[in-house]
Amino acid sequence: MADHALHHDHPHGLAHQFEDMPQQKESAVIGMWSFLITEILFFGGFFATYLIYRSYYPEAFFEGSSHLDIPLGAFNTVVLIVSSLTMAMAVHKSHEGNKRGILVYLTLTGILGLTFLVVKYFEYSAKIEYGLVPGLVWHPHGENSPQLALFYSLYFGMTGMHALHMIIGIGLLIWVFVKTAQGTYTAEYNAPVEIFGLYWHFVDIVWIFLFPLLYLLGTQGGGH
Amino acid sequence: MAITEQDVQASEDAPSVNYLNNGYGLKSWLLTKDHKRIAVLYIISISIFFALGGLFASLVRFELMTPEGDLMSSDTYNKVFSMHGIIMVFFFLVPSIPATIGNFLVPIMVGAKDLAFPRVNLLSWYVYVVAGILGTIAVVGGGVDTGWTFYTPYSSTYSNSNVILAAMAAFMAGFSSILTGLNFVVTIHTMRAPGMTWFRLPLFVWSHYATSLIMLLGTPVIAITLVLLMLERGFGFGFFDPNLGGDPVLFQHLFWFYSHPAVYIMILPSMGVMSEMVASVARKRVFGYEFVAFSSVAIAILGFLVWGHHMFVSSQSTYAGMVFSIITFLVAVPSAIKTFNWTATLYKGSIVYDTAMFYVYGYLGLFLVGGLTGLFLSSMGLDIHLHDTYFVVAHFHYIMVGGQVMGYLGGMHFWWPKITGKMFPDIWGRVSALLVFLGFNLTFFPQFILGYMGMPRRYHVYPDEFQVLNVASSMGASILALGYLVPGAYLTWSIFKGPKAPDNPWGAKGLEWETTSPPPTFNFEETPVVTEEAYQYGPIEEH
């Protein structure tokens, strides 16, 4: 970098408040981990609510779960796991300072993320069609437990919050992509790629918990 | 980056350039990334909300002068005390010390140029301002009548006020404090100056570290709780609605999982202020430094295990209640360690009777009463008698106002010369500390008696025999209000007319006193190197 050559005492990408690059990178990584801890507690509120009502009303949860589309959910799970792989590859390429490599893997990650959201859109549409959205369009047909609405409240609350995190993730991905294309990141300065990777993996892991709790539960309860 | 380099150059060439005079335009303030300027922005904004919350408190005290509900209707009274609580807790007390004095001092005390993420710091202020505007709209647009706790079903099934807007405002204010806490944790971990080991950190930094842990671990839970509440109100989801199988008590569990630790957000920072001031006025190292440091962390950890003591009468199982009760008693241990250690620091100290000392004494007295009455409330049997009475109101005001606000005011006086570069008249500082102490006790001590006699909180009509104590309380409140207005007046005066402050007016120890008053933009001319423990006060030099 031209900048780098001009300022020996001020490496490219070093913010004014830091002494050197390792300190800056350590701060960025600790900062993102701290943020992810807050996210764990944020989703933790949902999971605690889920666990309590799941133990109160097992029948309603089995029934609600059996109406979810397992093949689509499983497909989305695979999509997100693969996107974590491509994201990890993007981070790996950023350590090498390989601009083209980062761009390729970020593109793949973005496509997989969008695929997930498109599938989610079709799943939501089906639920709206069947009248399974509590409070808005709620007219489930056939036999149903009195607390079925609670399961679907949690389903939409949890997957909706997860989808919101995916959308924010794709927004951040575009930002990192543009910055990479502008040649901002080098083998020395790549913390933003790395901490964005941490965020992306976190959102994937949340889904890894949501899938069995919401989709696979119905297969355990004898189903309908 | 070019601008930054020039700034460094300028501050090296002319030491008289400081963070206040290196730019005057509105833009230089609203787009600043300097933690000191952001602290000043926070001081101005939280003062506005303190005044607004205080206005609602005055209305409550006016109404309670007479046994009849003659000043306002029951609905209006519900809204007035709710808005007092919501504004004071979410918009004043939680950010009070961390976002102002903490924001100003934590980077300087660890010997850094700024916080780790200056832009995130500015973002936290903007999030706070937007939250404040939303909160104000909720007030102006009809208010909220749920109490500051937003309990369901007041806030869901039976709500008839701006719950969603107020919850949104509280949610965003929480997000702002997460960003502040995150910045502190990272800064304290990675930005300490050479030689500044963990056990050389001033205790102010330790208490802010503990506070930040609570902000990081607790605030997200209130965020999700308010999200669930908004989904329930907005879309008709049934998380807390018994008709749909939901459980209103779950809301209380989730709410207090944050809000009890949050009580410690509203006391730990002031304990940090206290440690700094005690060492300075006694001219001694804080007695048992490590114990005081770890007691902050212990309070933060124990704070997460006691939320059930708010729910002794909410159908919680007796055994769960017993566990919560015992752990609550344990919180008294680290709190007592601090109080004893401050007292031990004063013992045989060379005490200076200045404004800071008055605030130290006031704080010790009020915190002692507040802390000990907490033990009454953590006893399950006694709590059934005292639950939701004025005893509880008096107890938490002794902690939050007697503790945090006393610490905030004391800290503002103590570091005022550093923040503004001007001295305030010390005699007025002592007068204001006395006014606050006397007014506070006259306001809230009668409420202990009222509560014990059985006056419930949140009612504006009461039996005639409670009137004497209520009038005493309202009279105290007007003295207390004077105690807050007087410092507002002479501190503002000192900005324009006060004498210029020396770098270290109190002869105190700590990196913040080694830089200029006010400090340069990047805090130090060159990165300081720390070679000694905190609070190494030597023998007094004779003048």
Itemize the secondary structure elements and their pairings.
The complex is a heterodimer of chains A (224) and B (543).
Chain A: H1 2-6, H2 21-56, H3 58-66, H4 70-96, H5 99-129, E1 132-133, E2 137-138, H6 148-181, H7 191-220
Antiparallel strand pairs in A: 1-2
Helix pairs in contact in A: 2-6, 2-7, 3-6, 3-7, 4-5, 4-7, 5-6, 6-7
Chain B: H1 2-13, H2 26-30, H3 35-63, H4 74-96, H5 98-110, H6 118-140, H7 163-190, H8 203-235, H9 248-265, H10 268-282, H11 289-303, H12 318-346, H13 355-378, H14 380-386, H15 390-420, H16 426-453, H17 467-497
Helix pairs in contact in B: 3-4, 3-5, 3-6, 3-17, 4-7, 5-7, 5-8, 6-7, 7-8, 8-9, 8-10, 8-11, 10-12, 10-13, 10-15, 11-12, 12-13, 13-15, 13-16, 15-16, 16-17
Quick synopsis:
The complex is a heterodimer of chains A (224) and B (543). With 224 residues, chain A is mostly helical. Chain A has helices at 2-6, 21-56, 58-66, 70-96, 99-129, 148-181, 191-220; strands at residues 132-133, 137-138.
Total beta strands of chain A? 2
**Unreliable runs of chain A:** 1-8
Number of domains of chain A: 1
Q: Which CATH architecture of chain A is right?
A: Up-down Bundle
* Biggest sheet overview of chain A: 2 strands, antiparallel
How many distinct folded domains of chain B?
1
Low-confidence segments of chain B:
1-14
CATH topology of chain A: Four Helix Bundle (Hemerythrin (Met), subunit A)
CATH homologous superfamily title of chain B: Cytochrome c oxidase-like, subunit I domain
Indicate the percent of residues in helices of chain A.
over 70%
Number of β-strand runs of chain B: 0
Quaternary structure classification: heterodimer
Largest sheet of chain B: none
Shape annotation of chain B: globular
Supply the number of helical segments of chain B: 17
